[in-house]
Amino acid sequence: MSPKSPSSFVILAVVFLLFNGVMFTVNQIEQAVVVRLGEPVRVIKDSGLHLKIPFLENVVFFDKRLMSVELSALEITLGDKRRIMVDAFGRYVITDPLRFYQSVGSENGVLNRLNPVVLGSLSSVLGGVSLSSLLSDTRISAMNKIRDEVNKAAKRFGINVIDVRIRKTDLPTQNSEAICKRMMSEREKEARELRAKGIEISQVIKSTADKENAIALSEANTKVQILIAEGELEANKIYTEAYSKDGDFFAFFQSLEAYRTAFNSENSTFVISPKSEFFNVMKGK
Fold first, then answer.
1. I need a surface site. Which of 97, 103, 139, 193 has the fewest CB within 10 A?
2. By C-alpha distance, which of 41, 102, 94, 91 is closest to 63?
3. Are strands 39-44 and 83-94 parallel, antiparallel or unpaired?
4. Which residues, listed in sequence order, are joined to residue 94 by a DSSP beta bridge?
5. How many other C-beta atoms are found inside a 10 Å radius of the C-beta of residue 176?
6. Residue 189 and residue 183: Cα distance in Å, rounded?
7. Tens of pLDDT along 74-84?
8. Distance in angstroms (rounded) separating the CA atoms of residues 175 and 181
9. Distance between CA atoms of 206 and 198, rounded to whole angstroms?
10. What is the mean pLDDT of residues 195-214?
């Protein structure tokens, strides 16, 4: 038989297909379950080349690494009767591939199995915790308790739950709206109280200022009247002393003051007798 004959190519192809059907490779990050006619027959956890019966057996691979699963959001009533929305996730490792294959089937089916277990544990544990405790460091002990409960229940699936964490917590939509309305009402009430208090303080300040202004004006007027009275008294005293010293000069001075006052206007008109005593100084008397 020539190496280049068609029959040789057929033989090589059959050998290649048989080789591929018999040999399979398990990577370092994988583990496998060999299934014969739908029934699992053995588990392979060691990496390398392995054998299987062609056409009768097939291999299902599972990851050895730490994997995560996104859980459904859940509305929970806390110990203080407050309702919150919890968004959580879990991390797990497949420790028993055979049991995992029999109970879960594939890695895509983990969510359907773990979701009710985790959500049930969340409702049970967080139902005895207040919102303030959940938002503080004490939530770590609650999350550890949830992890232990979920891990215990997940053993039957052939997995080990490493961690369960809450990604975020939020208030339900109707609660958020009610809280926003209450906060707005409280802020408006505070604003009204502050405005009323400001008006009251303003009126007090204005009233005090008006009172102090009236007192200051009254005191100033009193001081002015006192000063005027003292000035007039002093002037009269001076006039009296001057008059007592020289009566003629005082009379002369008073006459000059009378002339200055009377003739101050440019259009002054007098109807008076020339013999009046008013003109005595002018006459040299």
1. 193
2. 94
3. unpaired
4. 159
5. 12
6. 10
7. 787 787 777 78
8. 10
9. 12
10. 88
Taking 3-state DSSP, the helix, strand and coil percentages for the chain, each rounded to the nearest 5, stand at: 55, 20, 25
C-alpha closest to that of 93 among 72, 68, 116, 74: 68
Cα atoms found within 13 Å of the Cα of residue 144, Cβ hemisphere only: 5
Which residue type, as a one-letter code, is found at position 81?
K
| Dihedral of alpha carbons 142, 144, 147, 152, sign | negative
- Given a cut of 70, is residue 280 above it in pLDDT? no
C-alpha–C-alpha distance, residues 186 and 194, integer Å: 12
Comparison of pLDDT for 70 and 273, the residue scoring more: 70
The 10s digit of each residue's pLDDT in 31-69 is 999 999 888 888 888 888 888 888 888 898 998 899 888
CA–CA distance, 121 with 173 (Å, rounded to integer): 24
Q: List the domains of the chain with CATH numbers.
A: 6-63 (no CATH), 67-176 (3.30.479.30)
The owner of tokens 């496998």 is 32
Q: Which residues contact 256 (CB under 8 A, 6 or more apart)?
A: 281
For the chain, first and last CA: distance in Å? 180
- Report which residue type is found at 229: A
CA 243 – CA 3 distance, rounded (Å)? 165
One DSSP character per residue, 2-56 reads: -TTSHHHHHHHHHHHHHHHHHEEEE-TTEEEEEEETTEEEEEE-S-EEEE--TTT
Mean pLDDT for 91-110 is 88
The model carries a pTM of 0.53
Beta strand spans in the chain (E): 23-26, 30-36, 39-44, 48-51, 57-63, 67-70, 74-77, 83-94, 159-170
